[in-house]
Amino acid sequence: MDATEQFKELSKESGRRINCRIEMGNTTYNDDKLLRFEFDDITHPNWFTIGTAIANGFTFTVECDETPDVHTEVRPYIRINGSEWFSLGTFYVARRYFRGKYSTFACYDKLYELDVDPDESIPASAYKYSDTLLSAICNYTGLKFSGVCKSYPVFKPEGASIRQIIGHIAALNCACAKIDKNGVLVFKSYSSMPRAVLTAENCFNVTKNITRARISGLRVSTLSEILTYGTKSGLSVIELYCPFMTQDIVDAIGKQLDPLYFYGAEIEMRGLPYLESGDLILFEDIDGSQTPIDISEIQYTYDGELTAKLFSRNKNNSNPVVHRLEFQDALDAIWTYLQRK
Question: Which pTM was predicted?
């Protein structure tokens, strides 16, 4: 379920009232038990690209006596000013930490569990076309796919995990693969039409890169060759590995993306939970000027109020810190917070 226009407008209000609940297995935790959560939604870990398939993460701390099993399903929801409950996604417990009356759970969506060899799960007959291969993967993993997958010839790539194969198929579709807030696998493709406008009044701190990123070339490594389109090198070239690529597909993707431009930014802001990574949005400054921003990653934090940190990464404004799926930074922050209690 997508956010309604009413929910979006309520999210922007400065005097908003937020309620959260987390359903973990058969137990529901409301605000009176929930201490804090961190939600990390990432599509482009370094700068704009295609072909990624990165698991979103959700870490939360609650007061509880239960010890749910690893892989227990977790569904967080948020409500603003008594509006409808809005889902943040479907996750699964990966690790558990216990300290006194507080328990912290590090959870990820279904992509996290798909770094496995497809040998015994995907039949050899599925390795013919990209759409039939994706259908076979969904049948095996239980994933539901929403959208359209183009049909291109494929083969069984040596040493690739199921998650990597999903990323390769997404690349053929000029997209990144991700699990959306409804728990469904989608291909997030670039759209030249901004999906939202972020105004300065909803931001606490904005660092923008005044250099505009323009995508004008592709450089794709396959098993046997390097395929190119447009500009051959430099800051405006997308570089990736995809064993299924052909020159015709690279040319089609290059034409689909051109023109693509956006600005780099790092924005600390009020949490607007309907924004997600992979979105192209407009940042509207206090003077009314609008700047296109590609959301590479957005990190939400709830500790009574919902705040967020948004990253738009281009090669002139890339975060030198390697993205860590282990959520160690979030856990460190949680334990520091607990020690102050």
Answer: 0.88
DSSP, collapsed to helix, strand or coil, labels residue 165 as helix
Q: How far apart are CA 81 and CA 7, in angstroms?
A: 9
DSSP state of 69: P
Task: Classify residue 9: in a domain, yes or no.
Answer: no
User: Which CATH number do you get for residue 323?
Assistant: 2.30.300.10
- pLDDT tens, 74-94? 999 999 999 899 999 999 999
Domain-embedded: residue 4: no
Strand partners, 293: 263, 281
The share of the chain scoring above pLDDT 70, in percent, equals: 91
If DSSP codes are grouped into helix, strand and coil, which group holds residue 115?
Answer: coil
What 3-state class would DSSP assign to 330? helix
CA–CA distance, 139 with 46 (Å, rounded to integer): 31
Q: Is 318 inside a domain boundary? A: yes
- Which element (helix H / strand E) includes 169? helix 162-172
